[in-house]
Amino acid sequence: MSLLIKNGTVVTAVDQYVGDVLIEGERIATIGSSLSMPVDRTIDASGKLVLPGGIDVHTHLDMPFGGTTSADDFESGTIAAAFGGTTSIVDFAIQYKGQTLHHAWETWMHKAEGKAAIDYGFHMIITDLTDQVELEMDALVGQGVTSFKLFMAYPGVFMLDDASIFKALLRTGKNGGTICMHAENGGVIDVLVKKALAEGKTAPKYHALTRPVRAEAEATHRAIALAEMADVPIYIVHLSAAEALEMVTEARDRGLPAYAETCPQYLFLSDDNYEEPGFDGAKYVMSPPLRPAATQDRLWRGLAFNDLQAISTDHCPFCMKEQKSMGHGDFSKIPNGAPGIETRMSLVYDGGVRTGRISLNRFVELTSTSPAKIFGLFPRKGTIAPGSDADIVIFDPEKTTTLSVHSLHMKVDYNPYEGRQVTGVTETVISRGRVVIDNGRFVGRAGAGAFIKRSARW
Ligand SMILES: NC(=O)NCCC(=O)O
Ligand SMILES: [Zn+2]
Ligand SMILES: [Zn+2]
C-alpha cells in the first residue's frame, strides 16, 4: 500500500513547511515537493496541518480501580484516541502484591491483543518490590517495557515506601529504565480523608480539599531528591499544582534530569468545577485533584519554557451513573479518574497554539516528539521523517467543533468539557501506513494496533 499526502503544511518539533509525504507500507519513504508517482491513494492536504501522530504516554484502559474497572477497554479507548489524533499510547500494567511483573505484563498484553486499533506500549506499575521483582525489572526493560510507575499515594493499594522507591530508582540506573512517579503524600492524605469523613464532609469537593497542593509539592520534592541520590532521571506524572512545578523547575535549574507531564484537565478545568450542583463534582474526582484557576497560567508557562516536557491525558474514565455514583455519601469511594484520550489534541491546539501560549512546533513537541524521546519511541515515532513509522495526523486548524458526550467516542456517560467549542480538529489519521480515520470516519480495525517494544535510555 502506498499513500501520497500532498500540499499539506508539515509540522514537526523543529520544522514547518508545505510539502508532500510519500508513505510506502508502514513507513514514511520520502518527503519532498511536487512529488508525483503512481500510488494507491493520494490525499490532498491543502490548507491542513500534517502532524506526527499524537503520543499519549498516560492512559488507563480496562483498569480495575476503586472497586470497578475503567469504562474504556483497548478497543473503545484506542478508537477514541484515533478520532482525537493519537496514534500511540503507553498504558499501565499493574503488578498486584505477591504477583510477578511477568504475570502483570501478560495480563495487560492479553487485554490489548486483538482489540487495540493503534499501537500501544506499557509502563509497569510496581506495588511489591522484592529481590525477584528487581531482577524482573531488568528482564522487562529488555522486552521493551522500559518504564515503571511507582506511587507515593494510595496506602495499602499502590503506595511504596521510600526505601523501595529508592531501590527501584537505583535499579533503573543499572538497566536503563525510567521511573514515573505519582507524587502525592499518601499518608497525609489518608489522615485528612478520615478526618473529613468523621466530620461528616462527604461531598465530592472534599476529595480536592483533602489532597492539598503541599502534599503534591512535598512528594514531588521527595521523589526528585530520591532520584538525585540514586543519580538517575525521574518523570513526574500528572503534575497539577504550581507548587509541585516549582520543585521540578528548581531541580532542572540545578541541572538534574527531572521531567514532568501535565494533563489537559489541569490546563482547562479548576477546583471551581467541584462546586457544580448535586453530585456533579464527582465528574472531576481525580488524583491529583483540580487546582485553583490561577494555576493554569503557571502550567502553561512551564510548558512553554520546558519545565514541563509532555502533555498526556491520564485517561481513566468512569461513568457517572454506575461508577462515580459508588461514592454518593462518601467522596473517598468515588473512583478516581476522568476521560480525555480523545480531546487532548484539539484542546491543546485551541487553548495553547491559537492563544499564543505555545508555538505550533512546541505543540507537536509536547504531544508527540518529547514523550517519544523520553519513553524510547523516537525516532520510530514522534516525528515525520524518512524511515519513521507512518503515524500521521491531517489536522484542520480552522475547523470548529463542540466537545460533547453525544459526539465523542469514549465509552463514558459524560464529558468534563461538555459544550466547549474548540477550533482545530483531527480530520484523517494514518497509523503505520493504514488510514484509520478517514475524514472523521473510523475505517480502521480493532486488533490492527501492535505492541511497541520501547528502547531503554541506552
Ligand atoms: N489519576 C487518577 O485519578 N486516576 C488514575 C490513576 C492514577 O493515575 O493515579
Ligand atoms: Zn497516578
Ligand atoms: Zn494515571
TrEMBL record:
State the superkingdom: Bacteria
Enzyme Commission designation: 3.5.2.-
Coiled coil segments of this chain: none
Molecular functions (GO terms)? hydrolase activity, acting on carbon-nitrogen (but not peptide) bonds, in cyclic amides; metal ion binding
| Cofactor(s), by name | Zn(2+)
Keyword entries, A-Z: Hydrolase, Metal-binding
Give the Amidohydrolase-related domain ranges: 49-436
Q: Which residues carry this modification: N6-carboxylysine?
A: 149
Q: Which NCBIfam families match?
A: D-hydantoinase
Q: What is this protein called?
A: D-hydantoinase
State the organism named in the record. Luteitalea pratensis
